[in-house]
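Appendix B. Extra example for self-study. Work through it before the problem class; the solution is given directly after the inputs so you can check yourself.
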Amino acid sequence: MLQDARPVTVPRLERLFEAGNLPAGVFCLKAGSIRIGIVADSGHERTIDVVLPGGTFGEASIFKSSEAPVYAQALIQSDLLCISNETILTGIQQWPEMATVFLELACTRINQLLAGMYVCCLRNAHQRVNDFLLKNAQPVGGSRIQGIVSLLVSKSVVASSLNLTPETFSRELHSLSDQGLIKVERALIHVYDLEKLRRQGIA
Amino acid sequence: MLQDARPVTVPRLERLFEAGNLPAGVFCLKAGSIRIGIVADSGHERTIDVVLPGGTFGEASIFKSSEAPVYAQALIQSDLLCISNETILTGIQQWPEMATVFLELACTRINQLLAGMYVCCLRNAHQRVNDFLLKNAQPVGGSRIQGIVSLLVSKSVVASSLNLTPETFSRELHSLSDQGLIKVERALIHVYDLEKLRRQGIA
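Solution. Structure tokens for the complete assembly:
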């Protein structure tokens, strides 16, 4: 089936598809990064997901059951493979175990969206930033207390993925800096006390 | 496979499963109504979906890839069939076309969650209530202007499914009543001008 995959290159900040016009298939990202987002009539936006190399998206459109309200935009120049819905549906009939692979991808996506809904509806700004740092912190050496977060995309995209304005995201980071809990250095955030962040998140 | 389905009855307001302890399989609702919800540490809740007879839920747990943050609660006494994950996975190997059926269910769920995310992040309280009325209004006679919305669940559950407090939901309904656009009669909402609601929603 992979010989039927069509290579696609999308320049920085261009859109692969808009909300409304459903993607022609499932996309696999080879290099770059793709923002999946939703946009209101007012122009206000929210980032649902940032896809990194190795990631896939567009599974929900296989059956074209309804129009998805998402767009896909390249944050940097991105190389992808597109496997058309037609190829996938034919492939599933020929190799039915393929359906299981896509089903597993779809189930993972459902759980990810439910987690996103939880954040969006039930966590306040402070908790969202804490959660983000705790989830992405890599431990420094063998420490269970110190960690480091590498921002793979711009701060405004991170903010949007937490459904925060860039200003609110900055304010929360400043507040944590002022408490001596973190230090922001360009795309790196040093976390000095993961335990304390964890306790603050529960409270 | 259906002979392996286990009948389950859940009394009114009892929970079929809690967030964290993932459901043992896929559930199909025969009678009653089931609220799928998320709950914060603080106790604050949000209704994700209300499942009505004929509907299914629990698909995302088939592979147990991650814990879903949802609970399932019977709003009235409910009769269900539970098909265990094990039965489904064995069934898929025997009748691979079954995976396609579940894949289609999962894709529909993804699109539904994306639509919910859109509402939750990008529509204000007034727009959410308008959207709800427009989506659920049954036309009265041949009219394109008048419609009627039957509330199948309590107003507080509808409010929660729109991520609104019951108070905000009531306030929005009162405001529409005051404008002469709707009239609320117990579980029925008469909509007198669907066109005007539509125009207000875009603005």
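Self-check: Chain A has two domains: 2-122, 125-202. If your reasoning did not lead you there, revisit section 3.
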